[in-house]
Amino acid sequence: MSAPDSAGRPLRVIVGYDGSPSAVNAIEAAATLVPSATASVLHLWEPPFTSPELRQRLAGRASGLQQLGELLETEGRAEAERLAGNGVKLARAAGWEAEPMVKRAFGGDGYQFARTAEEMDADLVVVGTRGLGGVRAALGSVSELVVHVSPVPVLVVPYPLTTSEWAAATSGPVLVGTDGSAGAARAIDSAAALFPSRRQLLVAVAEPGPGPGPTAPDGAELLTVPCSGRPGSARATASTLAETAANRGAAVVVVGSRGRSASRELLVGSVPRALLHCAHRPVLVVPRSPVGTA
């Protein structure tokens, strides 16, 4: 999938919601960036989902292990549906049309997000992170895995955002990292489709070596910036993009998941992954084309 193709319909968004402040933050930021979307608020739950206190109460009501398991299943699903309903209220208050979606998880939540996006023909998946104290752990698990396996673009929203970052999300440009590759071209197309009302700024990080750098499509603004660290380093490239985004007040940073060649791939695990850890603003990672497509 090279770019969302909504054919005049509202964009279809799947947003992960678990009731955390990070998830609330992700809904608000995504609705600011992509207004008027239709959202499915997805909550994945894995029995027994209930709290230790509730498990203790249910144990007192159960006549045996089988009944306890049934009670835990019932209460766990009810709690999951309540959480998804709360997420829907938040999404609707933010301006989206929204509906709840509850699915049982059997491990591999990132894969389940990706499968759901494919099944629903979604244009975008939205996930949050929990900042330095809790999940950059989620970046090592669900968020990174969703980015790695999703067939559609994934918007990762960091938590928390500062006042200036919220202001940028409201009115700032879309910064797209480019290296002249097919992956960068897909990122440019997806950015235009998902954020059509935003000014687009293409940024190329200067790298050593012969040959011309990337060029901009007609009418696009291209900025070439020196690398702030060791040229060719994924971490330095990501840090340069993040610094440029902050200096330019960018609303979101967009990158493709694959670069120019096998030896210079922008795979998750390199530039996009490093960017998720250092860009204190939403990051959109656009996947490479599925096998068999251009």
From TrEMBL:
Superkingdom of this protein's organism: Bacteria
Name of a matching Pfam family: Usp
Residues annotated as domain UspA: 12-158, 238-287
PANTHER family: STRESS RESPONSE PROTEIN NHAX, UNIVERSAL STRESS PROTEIN UP12
Family stated for the protein in its record: Belongs to the universal stress protein A family.
UniProt protein name: Nucleotide-binding universal stress protein, UspA family
